[in-house]
Recover the amino acids of this structure.
């Protein structure tokens, strides 16, 4: 608990107790001289608590997708490194996020996904909240059958709502309510992608209900998944099949500025075609760019794959310093491609393809985690040619630690 308190009050002081600040500064050197983040950033549970403060609470962090609460009244709990949250779809179809704690005696309100008819009722003494978080019932608060008290102002005990935003079905939260407006945050990425899709096209995305989701448990720190996703350097060694279709030289780096995202793109994306069938395309995607696809990590914890005919989000749930749950959600353009019977086997094949790719990556992510137990590893070096986007992510983390 002392760690949390100190992290709130003196970011740098606390960090200094855990690792050598000079090692963080070394990350920000030009790539030829830079080292990666030091081992403690992947092995120290105390460090993870600093990251919880400086990264996950301070930034626009992903906690799920809107399609996991598809209907008004659907609600589910989420645990962000110990912080209990509720994701709820209200009657106006808006996804809201609340702190998952009753204002009475602090019971955690929701423990599993459920459908709520009208209110969120605390299982302990039945205080109830509407979908806007308003406290609407306090049964027996004044003794048996006395449900209101003049001296108790209900309006001061509503649920605490978390600042949130849904973009391309991805739910972002900014727990400390201190980040720039979400629109501004995502604008550099939207601008980059405006050559492929318009804002209107974003609404054509439909979640695939039958083969649209999988999760993977990884024995690694969450950051390794992002670092690996940012580069195509490992294609020939780790993804030999993928490399046959689209090899290293068909890829290009993506390094967004201001530094909020990084990744890679391919110039050789091939649509899945079965006989005369293929998924629908984004309507305004230019013909001369139809073989382009982009794989971008939007910091801190979501990776996105954009193609002319499908889109996925691959987001990370940090569990502990060396355990992460990866979640993929798959989308197509229009209801027919996303859920029509005629495309079912193709959807199955497409999600299987991506699951195989992500599973191949697990062994390298876990291998890096194991390597970080070595006392002689100093954060390593980068290839100035191949590792630019990965270095950019290291710098982003470093800048949030010693800003
Ligand atoms: S703690 Fe929720 S009603 Fe008492
Ligand atoms: Fe990979």
């Amino acid at each position: 608990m002392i760690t949390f308190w100190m992290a709130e009050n003196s970011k740098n002081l606390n960090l200094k107790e855990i690792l050598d600040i000079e090692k963080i500064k070394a990350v920000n050197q030009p790539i030829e001289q830079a080292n990666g983040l030091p081992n403690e950033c992947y092995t120290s549970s105390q460090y993870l608590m600093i990251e919880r403060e400086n990264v996950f609470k301070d930034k626009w962090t992903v906690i799920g997708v809107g399609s996991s609460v598809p209907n008004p009244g659907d609600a589910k709990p989420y645990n962000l490194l110990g912080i209990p949250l509720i994701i709820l779809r209200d009657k106006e179809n808006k996804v809201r996020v609340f702190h998952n704690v009753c204002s009475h005696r602090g019971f955690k309100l929701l423990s599993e996904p459920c459908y709520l008819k009208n209110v969120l009722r605390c299982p302990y003494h039945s205080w109830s909240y509407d979908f806007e978080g308003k406290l609407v019932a306090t049964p027996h608060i004044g003794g048996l059958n006395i449900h209101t008290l003049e001296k108790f102002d209900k309006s001061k005990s509503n649920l605490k709502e978390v600042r949130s935003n849904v973009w391309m079905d991805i739910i972002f939260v900014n727990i400390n309510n201190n980040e720039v407006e979400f629109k501004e945050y995502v604008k550099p990425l939207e601008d980059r992608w405006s050559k492929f899709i318009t804002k209107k096209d974003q609404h054509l995305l439909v979640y695939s209900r039958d083969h649209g989701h999988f999760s993977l448990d990884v024995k690694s720190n969450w950051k390794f998944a992002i670092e690996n996703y940012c580069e195509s350097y490992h294609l020939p060694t780790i993804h030999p099949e993928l490399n046959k279709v689209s090899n290293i030289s068909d890829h290009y780096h993506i390094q967004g500025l201001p530094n909020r995202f990084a990744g890679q793109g391919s110039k050789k994306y091939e649509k899945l075609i079965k006989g005369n069938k293929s998924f629908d395309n984004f309507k305004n995607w230019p013909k001369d760019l139809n073989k382009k696809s982009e794989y971008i990590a939007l910091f801190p914890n979501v990776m996105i794959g954009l193609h002319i005919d499908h889109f996925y989000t691959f987001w990370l749930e940090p569990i502990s310093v060396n355990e992460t749950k990866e979640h993929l959600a798959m989308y197509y353009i229009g209801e027919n491609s996303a859920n029509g019977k005629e495309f079912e086997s193709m959807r199955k094949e497409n999600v299987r393809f991506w699951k195989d790719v992500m599973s191949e990556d697990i062994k390298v992510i876990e291998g890096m985690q194991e390597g970080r137990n070595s006392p002689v590893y100093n954060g390593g070096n980068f290839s100035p040619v191949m590792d630019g986007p990965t270095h950019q992510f290291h710098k982003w983390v470093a800048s949030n630690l010693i800003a």
Observations:
- Residues 102, 104-105, 107, 122, 124-127 surround FE2/S2 (inorganic) cluster (ligand 1) (CB under 6 Å).
- The radius of gyration is 23 Å.
